[in-house]
Specification:
alpha/beta; homodimer; about 10% strand; about 325 residues; N-(1-d-carboxylethyl)-l-norvaline Dehydrogenase, domain 2; globular
Chain lengths: ~325, ~325
C-alpha cells in the first residue's frame, strides 16, 4: 500500500502547509469543511457558481470561528490560505485533495466527476460528502475512479469527529488508506464502511432510533422533551463513552457479550416485535410540530444552538482527557 | 397535589438525614441504589433472603465507592446509615420509601407487593426498579396501590442520571410528584412515562437502534468496533448534549422542526423501508461473538469497564458545567 502521493502521510500524520484542497460547493457543509482545512493550515480554494461566493463563504467562516477556537485552533489568520475560483478547471489546478459537496443528484454528480477528472492532477485524492449517492454510481463515467470515494461527515464537519469512508467498487486500497490518513491528520475520526448501503451507517442508525422516537411521541407514551431528556441522560451519555456493542459487552459482566446475548437477547427480540412503524402523515406531523413548538419554540434558534454546541464542545473535551 | 408525606420535599429538594429507605433485593441494582441513598445521607435497610446478604452488599458497596467519590459524594462513613434485615416486615418498619428490586416474575412480584402493603406505614412511597412488569400488574392484588409505581433506573442507578417514572393506573398524582421530587433530590433525572408500554422508553429506543446495529454487523457492512466508533463519535456525542428531537429541530435551521421534516422526512421514511430485521439465530450469534472477541476480547473486563466509567464520569461532569 503506497502512500507517496499523500503529503499528509509523508509527515507522519502532520498536516503540511503546502497541501492544497479544492472545496467544491460552498453550502453549509462545504464552508464547514473549508474552515476545518484552513484551521489546519491547508491552502483552500472554494469553488461554486453562486454569485455571492466570497461574501457568503466569509460570513459562514466567521460563524465557525468560536467553535474552531474552542477546538484549540488559531483563528487570527484563518482566511490567509483561502482563495475563490468559480471556474472548476482553474479551481482544481494543483489540488492534492478535493472535497466535493455538490447536490445529491445522480446526473449532476456524474457530469461533475467527469469534469473533475479532466482538471485533476495525477494522484490527487477525490472525496465526496455525499450522504446518499455512492461512489460506484457517481464516478461511473470516469475513466479512472480508483482515487475517488465518499468521505461523508456528520454535520457539522468541523465539529463532529466522525467521517464515514465509503469506497466504491473501483476505489483502490491506497486511496482508502490515504483518505483515512488525511482525515485523521485533521483530527477527525475516519471509519471505513465495507458496503455501499443506503444511508451508510450513522444515518441508518439515526433513522432506526428516530422511527421509535416518532412512534412513542405520536402515541403519547411520552412527551417530546421528556424523550429528549431520556436519551441525553441515559443512552446518549453511554454511547458518547462507548458504542452499543461495547456497552452490551460490559452489560454481560465478566461473561462478556455471549453472556449478555444469552440473558438479554430473548428480551430484545421480544421488544423488536412491538416497535412501532409510524409514517409522516398529516396527523403525525401535526402532533410532532405542536409538541416541538411547545418544547423548544420559546427559545431563539441561535440560543438553542449555542447552548447545544457549548455542551457538545465540553463533552468532546472531556472525552479527550 | 400534597407532598407533606414526602420529607425530601419539605426541605425543598434537600435530602433529610432522617428519611428511611428500605431496599428490597440485594442484587447489582439494589446495591447500587443502596450506595446512592447512603451517599445522600439516607438511612438504608437492605432486605434480601440471600445467606451472604451482609458480605455481598458490603463488597458491592466498596466497588461503588470510586464512582460515588467521583460524583462528589463523601464516602468515608458510607455504611454508617446502613442496616440489614432478612425479614421483610421488620425491614419495612418506619420506611418512608421502598425501592424494590425483586426478580421479574409476575407471581413473585404480586405476592411481594401484598406483603409490602401489610408491613408498610401509611403514606410511604413504593418504587419498583422493574424493567418489564408494569405497576398496574404487579400491584394488582394490593388493597391500595395509589402510592406504588415504577422508578426504573438505567444501569447502574448510582451513576446514570435517568430514572423512568412509570405510574400504574391506580397511582395518584401526588405519588408521581413525590417520586419525581425524591429522585431529583438525589441528583437523578426523573422522567415521567405516560403509558405502561413494554420496555418503557429507554429500552425500546435501545432495542430499536441495536436491531440495526446487529443487522449491519451481521451483513458485514461494517465491523463491530467500527460501528461502536461511529456511534461514539457522532450520534452518541450529539445525544449526550441534546436528544433526537432537539437535534433535528436544530438540524432544520431557523425554520426548525417543521422545516426539518419537510426536507428530511421523506429520506427518513425511505431509510425506514430498508432497515434490517435480524434474529439472534446461531449464525448471527456466532458472527457477533466472533467479532466481539476480536474487538474487545483481548482487554480485561475490569480494565474495559474502568476506562468506560472514567470517560462516562468526565462526560457527565462536562455536561454539568
Amino acid at each position: 500500500m503506497t502512500t507517496t502521493t499523500n503529503p499528509l502521510n509523508e509527515k507522519s500524520g502532520m498536516v503540511p502547509k503546502d497541501a492544497k484542497v479544492t472545496v467544491i460547493g460552498a453550502g453549509v457543509i462545504g464552508i464547514s469543511w473549508a474552515g476545518l482545512f484552513l484551521a489546519n493550515g491547508l491552502k483552500v480554494t472554494v469553488n461554486d457558481v453562486r454569485p455571492d461566493l466570497e461574501e457568503s463563504t466569509l460570513k459562514g467562516l466567521n460563524e465557525l470561528k468560536p467553535s474552531l477556537q474552542a477546538l484549540g485552533y488559531q483563528i487570527d489568520h484563518l482566511e490567509s490560505g483561502l482563495s475563490f475560483e468559480k471556474d472548476l478547471a482553474k479551481a482544481l489546478e494543483g489540488a492534492d485533495y478535493v472535497q466535493e459537496n455538490g447536490p445529491e443528484n445522480i446526473q449532476f454528480k456524474q457530469n461533475l466527476y467527469v469534469n473533475i477528472e479532466a482538471g485533476l492532477k495525477s494522484g490527487a485524492l477525490v472525496l465526496s460528502s455525499s450522504s446518499g449517492i455512492p461512489a460506484t454510481v457517481f464516478a461511473e463515467k470516469m475513466k479512472d475512479p480508483s482515487r475517488v470515494l465518499v468521505g461523508h461527515p456528520f454535520n457539522p464537519p468541523h465539529l463532529i469527529p466522525l467521517v464515514e469512508i465509503v469506497p466504491g467498487k473501483q476505489t483502490s486500497e491506497a486511496a482508502i488508506s490515504d483518505a483515512k490518513s488525511f482525515y485523521a491528520a485533521l483530527g477527525k475520526k475516519p471509519v471505513v464502511i465495507n458496503k455501499e448501503v443506503p444511508g451508510f451507517v450513522a444515518n441508518r442508525l439515526q433513522a432506526a432510533i428516530f422511527r421509535e422516537c416518532v412512534y412513542l411521541v405520536s402515541e403519547e407514551v411520552v412527551r417530546m422533551e421528556s424523550l429528549d431528556d431520556i436519551v441525553s441522560n441515559s443512552i446518549g451519555l453511554r454511547w458518547a463513552a462507548a458504542g452499543p456493542f461495547k456497552t452490551f459487552t460490559l452489560g454481560g459482566g465478566p461473561g462478556g457479550f455471549s453472556h449478555f446475548l444469552e440473558h438479554f437477547g430473548p428480551g430484545l427480540e421480544q421488544l423488536w416485535q412491538v416497535l412501532g412503524s409510524p409514517h409522516f402523515d398529516k396527523t403525525t406531523v401535526d402532533k410532532l410540530v405542536e409538541q416541538e413548538t411547545r418544547a423548544y419554540g420559546q427559545v431563539l434558534y441561535e440560543d438553542l444552538q449555542k447552548e447545544r454546541d457549548n455542551q457538545q464542545l465540553a463533552i468532546m473535551a472531556a472525552k479527550k482527557q
